[in-house]
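Sorry to interrupt, but I need a hand with the structure work. Can you supply me with one protein entry, sequence and fold together? No commentary is needed, just the two lines. Leave the record below and I will have a look.
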Amino acid sequence: MGEALAVGGDLVGAQERYVTRPTLLLASTSPQRRAILTQLRIPFDVAAPAFDEETVDNPLARAAGKARSVDGAGRPVLGVDTEVVLDGRLWGKAAGPEEAETMLRSLSGRAHEVVSGLCLRTLDWEELHTISTLVTFRRLADAAIAEYVASGEWEGRAGAYAIQGLGAGLVDRVDGDYLNVVGLPGSVLLDVLDRRF
């Protein structure tokens, strides 16, 4: 912080000069991904991807499909997709309360991977990355599972939980990028932006 003051004599002005990021086009309607970009102070606009996620079976291919399905109009386009992996099986979003309960029972007391695919592309280049975070659930009582399912927070979430909400109470440990579990691998995105811009 002292260096910033010495260079510009104005801390705010120095910070503005130091953090200059392009405005991304986020190919997603996910509120979690919007919140992460806002938290990281990465400017962005949003476009709903025109991509059928059922046509591919892994997060990296879905992230790329989302990013390639929208026109960035000169802006870098970001596509992200996240899955929960347990025993080699991909766990997407639960179709209903019974499936959510089944997923949570399977995750109870065990470690699983949260795997995200990230695609950042422009007209001149494209970068693809796969990121994995290990999450360990505490052993869950039947009442805790029922209470969480009743909350409805599991809806639209890979693995039927949201670590940034009530789902934090399901988790014993996180090894790796926490933001990846929320829905966007922030550290990898920042690394790419630092290299490319």
